[in-house]
Every structure is written in structure tokens, then in C-alpha cells.
Specification:
The complex is a heterodimer of chains A (about 220) and B (about 425). Chain A has helices at about 20-25, 75-90, 105-115, 155, 170-185, 190-200, 205-215, and strands at about 1-5, 10-15, 15-20, 50, 55-60, 65, 70. Chain A has about 220 residues and is of the alpha+beta class. Chain A has 2 domains: about 1-85, Ubiquitin-like (UB roll) (Roll); about 95-215, no CATH class. The model of chain A has no long low-confidence stretch (mean pLDDT about 90). Chain B has a single domain (about 40-385), classed as Cytochrome-c3 Hydrogenase, chain B (Orthogonal Bundle), CATH 1.10.645. In chain B, about 45% of the residues lie in helices and about 20% in strands. The longest helix of chain B has about 30 residues, at about 90-120. The radius of gyration of chain B is 21 Å and the shape is globular. The model of chain B has no long low-confidence stretch (mean pLDDT about 90). The chains are: A alpha+beta (about 220), B alpha+beta (about 425). The interface of A and B includes residues 139, 153, 156, 157 and 159 of A.
């Protein structure tokens, strides 16, 4: 048995155990996306980064311990690096939570909340399934272009989203959202006018207006 | 008794919002200025040109304490302007929501104002000297909020209430739970009255309201009204909602950012004290009994708080009945009252609602679905001039009784608190 110290917590594990498994045993939470025990151990998401006290970085899912060692798993710089890695991953994800059947069990949404990443709409937290979407009933809901994180309070209570937490600023998401509004027969101008009530002085509103104009101009 | 006297209360304590009160006495005349010093927010202006259906959502933001009344009153006004008739169940649910707000809000106000009457001075002190009573009252408040959550969801700026719709699905079992819970709450409130009457001492006994005109909603049917189409004044005058402007006049005074409202040029008051007098015959016998137990003196403005307690106890019982009645109308399982779009019409509508602190008026003019004109008269605006007049009489009365200046200041602050625990809605 070897002793592993993670964030000050000591556990004894079999030699050859990964740091991730040791951390789990020690009760230290390390985020991850790609590891599926017994199926895939490829260390490709790089969200489970940990470091030694000397500052050496490596993915915890791929590092096995054979002697007594110490690791840090929750320093601010580690979280910052995880955030950047996650943003890079998310860059290639086609965010369309409003049409996604998996949204309630989505680990991307969970992580984006923990890591405070921009670009996930309120739809991701909406309790209504895509087939019951308020937009289909003709109600102008701003969920598709509004920043998530509120657990969709208003939608849970049966109201529509007004985007009180501010706009998403990722242009590709906005573009798809506005295209969807248009597809459902909403005037893009009405959407912007409703968004104005909360976002008139919000930092990302200029981007929203720019994308709205671009989508409206496509005819 | 001093010939001249100048007193200022900077930011009346234990109320939300900034209000300064200036008291001036020269020879025999006393002047009390009630000045709201916070900045106006121009709610009536910035909705112009926007869809009328946005009005309820935005107008509810006038006040976070009594958001439901602004929301529902605004919905009523928009429905009248657009000519939309909600389903009877939607209307019933809205009345329930409104009733809940009156109960919760007035109950918290009683709790906040009570230390003035028990001599504790503030709520923290009150909670220390009467720990069991305080814990029980907090528990009742929590249960009222929980019951509201079951029917409408979030209490502050409830998203489920909308024009001709009720967004939250309702189940029969939840309505029945709410009915049973509110019946228990009502029973407890009646029981609590005995121990409250012991510590609830009268303030300024013998002081009489100098302007006894009041205004309430005229009940459309024989029960305590939440919404109505008519205003009734204590002199017997009744006016329809659309013609409120003929008798109620709003004025801007230089010393305050808030407007004041006058009835034919004279001050009038609104609130539980007015309602309990006007609806006395509609009350249950227990509530009438409670008025005697607490010794409510309707001619004393300080007894508004006692009247509120009576109203809370009575309304809890009424809400229990209403919830159970509504439950019996729903067959089983879940009922949806979520409606879709609203027509883009033109029209004018005035919504009247029973606010926790009085009568609320929302007046909208709509053209092609867009808001063209909005006017809101809040209970605090209606009471503002009455507080000044009552304050003036109170200061003269207190000085003639030989009460010292520090106590006069306390009395005036307590008077403001007896009317209203929060004043930002006066500046909207």
C-alpha cells in the first residue's frame, strides 16, 4: 500500500492506482468528461488536471502512483486551466439545448455551471421537453439567448424567460437561436425589443443586436 | 408648551425606502412634511410603445414586497384594455394569489410594527423578550409562503400569473393541502389573539383621526373583494373604475419625490382600517369577535395594525374555503390553465385591486397591442397626505398633553409605520 496526499487529505491505496481513483477515495472532487471506467481511459478532455507541489501538471486519470506522493487538485490556477480546456472543448460543441433531448442529464451543462463558462442557454435548465417548448405555443421566451444558472426559476413556475441574468455572447449560439426564432415565425425585432427591458445596458447586448440584424437581413 | 418647534426624522427607521419627516410648529399651527427622498424610476414612462402584455411583468417590479398586487392589478387592467376574458378558474386562482399576498404581507407588517405597541422598540428586541410568540409567528409566515408556493410558485414577482393565464399546473391534492393548511393557520391566528391582546398596548389613546374619509373597493358580490370595477368612499359615493380620475386627483408636492392623491381636494386613507369598517358585515362572526378581543378603535390611525391582524385571520379562513371550493371543481390529476397569445387590440382599461395597504389603481391605454399611456396610483400615494394631516393633529394632541419632544418624534415615526412598512412604491 502507498500513501497519497491530495489537497491535504491522506488515503492509502494499492500501488498502480490512478490519482483520480485515489482522489475519489479521499473525497476530493475532480471534474472529468472522458473517463468511463473499464471502457475508456484515454485522458483526452484534460479537465482532471492536477499538479504536484513543485508545479508539475498532468491528467489525474492517467497517472498511477507507485510510491508515497502529494498532489494539489483545487488551486485557483488549476480551475482556470480547466475552464480554458473546457471552453476549447465547448467551442466544437453545437449548442442547441432547446432541441436537445439529453439536456436534463448533460454533463456539459453541469460543468459549465461549475466553471462559469459563457454560452449555455436557459433552455438547458428548462423543465419542459422540447416538444412542450413555450415558443411552439407562440410565447416569446428569451431562454435561447439568455445566460443559464438560475435553474430556470420562471419556467418552473410556468412563466417565460425574460433573460434577467444577461445575454449569451457566443455568436454561433445566438445565430442558431435567432434562426430558430425566425423559423417559428417570430419577428427578430420583437425579440430584441423584449430583450431590451433587462439588457439595455448589459455588456453583451451589442453582440446580440449585431447577430439579430445579421439573421434578420438574411431574408 | 413651546411656541415654536422644529423636529426632523431623517429616514424613518424600520420601513423600506427613504422618507424624511419634518415637523414644524409656529404659534398654534403645526406642519408635518412627509417627504420621500428616493429617486423616481419612471415606470409609467418607459413602458410606452412596448407591448401591453409586458406591463404586468415590468410593473410588478415597482415593489418587491407587494409584487403580486402590482402584477395582478396590471393583468386586470391589460385584460380590460384588450377585451380578454379569462377562464373562471384562472380568475379564481388569481384571487387566491392576491389573497395570499394580503395575508402574508399584512402579517409581516404586524410583526414589524408590533414592537411599537409592546414597548420593545424594534423587532430584534421583541424576538428576545417574546421568543416563543416570535418563533410561532415566523412559523406561521413560513407556512403561508409554502402554501402560496404550491399554487403559484415563487412568491416574489410570481412568473406563473399572466394575462388570461395561470402558468403553473395545479393539482387537486395540492389545492386540498393548501385549503387544510390555511384553515389551520386561521385557527392558530384566532388562538394567538388572546396572548397578543395582553401585550398589545394602545398608542395615543384618545387621539382621533382628523380626516375620517376612506376609500375601498366596492365588493362585486357578497364577499371580501380582491378585484372590483368600482371604488366606494366612506361618504357613500361610488364611482366606476374608468372614472376614478374625476374624484381622485394626483398632485406633486415640492418637498417630496412622491405624488399625493386627494379625494375631491381632501385627504383620505386606505388600508385594513378602512376595509374592516367597510366590510364589517361581510366578515365571519369570529372575525367580528376578534375586533372586540383586540379592542380595535377604528378612529385611531395607530389601530390600523390591529385591523390588519383581524384581516389576516379572517382572510386565511376565506382562502381555505376558496382553495377547497376550487379543488372540488377540478376533477383529478393536473389541470393546466396556460393560454397562448393575446390579441393585439386597442382599448383602455383600469384595474382595481385590494393591495395589502389599500387600493391600487393601474390605468392603461393601448393602441394595436402597444401601451400608449400608463398611470399607477399606489396606496402609499393615497395615504401620503393623510399621514401628514394625521401627523399634524397628532403633534398638536401630544404637545397639548405635555408629551416631550423625543417621544413626539417616536410617535410620528410609529404613525408612519402604522400605515405602511414600505414606501418605495410611492415613487414609481
Amino acid at each position: 500500500m502507498v500513501k497519497v496526499k491530495i489537497d491535504g487529505r491522506v488515503v492509502e491505496v494499492e500501488p498502480g492506482t490512478t490519482v483520480l481513483e485515489a482522489a475519489e477515495k479521499a473525497g476530493v472532487e475532480i471534474p472529468r468528461l472522458c473517463v468511463v471506467p473499464g471502457l475508456y481511459e484515454g485522458s483526452s478532455c484534460r479537465l482532471c488536471l492536477v499538479k504536484t507541489p513543485t508545479g508539475r501538471l498532468f491528467p489525474s486519470c492517467n497517472y498511477r502512483v507507485y510510491r508515497d506522493e502529494e498532489f494539489l487538485a483545487s488551486t485557483p490556477d488549476l480551475w482556470e486551466m480547466r475552464r480554458v480546456n473546457f471552453e476549447l472543448l465547448l467551442k466544437f460543441h453545437r449548442i442547441e439545448c432547446w432541441a436537445c433531448e439529453r439536456k436534463s442529464s448533460c454533463s456539459l451543462v453541469q460543468l459549465s455551471k461549475e466553471l462559469l463558462v459563457d454560452g449555455i442557454p436557459v433552455c438547458s435548465e428548462c423543465p419542459l421537453p422540447p416538444s412542450e417548448c413555450l415558443l411552439l405555443k407562440g410565447e416569446l421566451c428569451l431562454g435561447m439567448i439568455a445566460q443559464s444558472g438560475c435553474n430556470a426559476e420562471c419556467l418552473v413556475s410556468g412563466g417565460e424567460c425574460w433573460g434577467c441574468r444577461g445575454p449569451i455572447t457566443r455568436e454561433d449560439v445566438l445565430e442558431r437561436a435567432f434562426a430558430r426564432y425566425k423559423e417559428l415565425g417570430f419577428d427578430v425585432k420583437d425579440v430584441v425589443s423584449k430583450a431590451e427591458i433587462y439588457w439595455n445596458s448589459a455588456p453583451g447586448f451589442a453582440t446580440v443586436k449585431k447577430v439579430a440584424e445579421r439573421v434578420a437581413g438574411r431574408g | 408648551m413651546a411656541e415654536t418647534l422644529k423636529l426632523t426624522i431623517e429616514e424613518v427607521p424600520a420601513v423600506a425606502g427613504k422618507v424624511n419627516v419634518h415637523i414644524e410648529k409656529e404659534q398654534a399651527t403645526v406642519r408635518v412634511d412627509f417627504g420621500a427622498t428616493q429617486d423616481p424610476r419612471f415606470f409609467e414612462r418607459f413602458l410606452k410603445g412596448r407591448p401591453a402584455v409586458y406591463a404586468p411583468h415590468v410593473m410588478s417590479r415597482i415593489c418587491g414586497v407587494c409584487s403580486v398586487v402590482h402584477l395582478t392589478c396590471s393583468i386586470e387592467a391589460v385584460e380590460k384594455a384588450l377585451g380578454v376574458e379569462p377562464k373562471p378558474e384562472v380568475k379564481a386562482l388569481r384571487e387566491l394569489a392576491k389573497g395570499f399576498e394580503n395575508v402574508q404581507n399584512n402579517f409581516v407588517h404586524v410583526l414589524m410594527a408590533l414592537p411599537d405597541y409592546t414597548g420593545d422598540g424594534n423587532v430584534v428586541q421583541f424576538s428576545k423578550s417574546h421568543p416563543q410568540l416570535f418563533a410561532r409567528m415566523m412559523d406561521i409566515n413560513r407556512r403561508i409562503l409554502e402554501a402560496y408556493r404550491r399554487i403559484c410558485g415563487r412568491f416574489i414577482h410570481t412568473p406563473s400569473l399572466g394575462v388570461a393565464s395561470h402558468g403553473k399546473p395545479i393539482t387537486k391534492s395540492e389545492l386540498e393541502y393548501v385549503g387544510r393548511e390555511m384553515a389551520r393557520v386561521s385557527k392558530e391566528l384566532y388562538e394567538l389573539a388572546g396572548s397578543l391582546a395582553e401585550i398589545w398596548k394602545p398608542i395615543a389613546q384618545g387621539f382621533e383621526d382628523p380626516a375620517p374619509t376612506y376609500c375601498v373597493l366596492k365588493p362585486p358580490r357578497e364577499e371580501f373583494p380582491m378585484f372590483s370595477n368600482e371604488l366606494a368612499f366612506s361618504d357613500g359615493f361610488v364611482v366606476s373604475a374608468e372614472r376614478y380620475g374625476e374624484v381622485i386627483e394626483e398632485r406633486k408636492l415640492p418637498h417630496s419625490n412622491a405624488k399625493i392623491a386627494l379625494y375631491r381636494g381632501k385627504p383620505f386613507y386606505v388600508g385594513s382600517r378602512a376595509r374592516m369598517q367597510a366590510y364589517f358585515t361581510l366578515l365571519a362572526s369570529e372575525a367580528r369577535e376578534l375586533i372586540k378581543t383586540l379592542g380595535v378603535d377604528f378612529s385611531n390611525p395607530f389601530d390600523n395594525v390591529k385591523a390588519q391582524y383581524v384581516e389576516v385571520a379572517y382572510l386565511s379562513g376565506l382562502l381555505a374555503e376558496k382553495s377547497l371550493e376550487l379543488a372540488s371543481r377540478i376533477r383529478s390529476g393536473v389541470a393546466f390553465f396556460h393560454e397562448g397569445t393575446v390579441p393585439e387590440k386597442s382599448g383602455e382599461g383600469v384595474g382595481l385591486a385590494t393591495a395589502p395597504r389599500g387600493v391600487l389603481i393601474h390605468h392603461y391605454r393601448v393602441r394595436d397591442g402597444k401601451l400608449e399611456y400608463a398611470n399607477v396610483i399606489t396606496p402609499t400615494v393615497m395615504n401620503a397626505r393623510h399621514i401628514e394631516v394625521a401627523g399634524e393633529a397628532l403633534v398638536s394632541w401630544a404637545l397639548s398633553k405635555g408629551i416631550d419632544e423625543a417621544r413626539v418624534k417616536d410617535l410620528v415615526a410609529a404613525l408612519v409605520r402604522a400605515y405602511d412598512p414600505c414606501l418605495p412604491c410611492a415613487v414609481h
